[in-house]
Amino acid sequence: MKVIVVKDYDELSKVAAQMLIGEMFQRHERVNLAITAGTTPIGMYEKLVDEVKGKSYFDNVHYYNFDEIPYKSGCREGVTIGDLRELYFTPAEISEERIHILDGENYEEQDKRVAEAGGLDAILLGIGADGHYCGNLPGTTKFTDFTTKVVCDEAMKERIAPHFENRAETPDFYVTMGPRSVMNARHLILFASGKKKAKIMKAFVEGAITDEIPASILKLHPHLTVILDEEAAQFL
Asked: Per the database record, which ranges form the Glucosamine/galactosamine-6-phosphate isomerase domain (predicted)?
């Protein structure tokens, strides 16, 4: 595990963007990246769009979402892919044939199709204050799981309901790449920003591998890079 501590959110966004661009330049053949939505990568995508848009030499880069919260009615695409389109795919003009959507219908084929495409070269991950990553929250998945469906209890429904303007669209399940799927990637990039992530980053970096902190399993990966700003790293 390599830990990189930068000054602030802007520098964190810049370093993360540079790291993804480095992955894009790794090979002339196909490059497969799984990337995250949420608030932490907003600044990174702003920088990445400027570097990627209109660059034909990045046409070999393909993208995957690693989890999805579907709309219960199926009236539109899921929350994750919708956010990724808004943050990155649409402004960067990523062609549809290079966007490989994971959803509630095809999750059982996710690991097979990723393997047939050559595997994931890198996954960009955030981490929650509870130690979750992707859709691997405490008490939801096991370290041995591949891509899986997670049935939502009432507490989980309340947690994900704010993603929907109409709460009736809150689904009974979501799908996520499990720990074994994530660990199959060649490079894991985990980043965190702000004081609210300081406590969990201390537990992640310095603590034991435990089910209570799902992301702790990632420390066993042979190529894990952690990028933190000073606020997130303040307790290390």
From this structure: 20-219
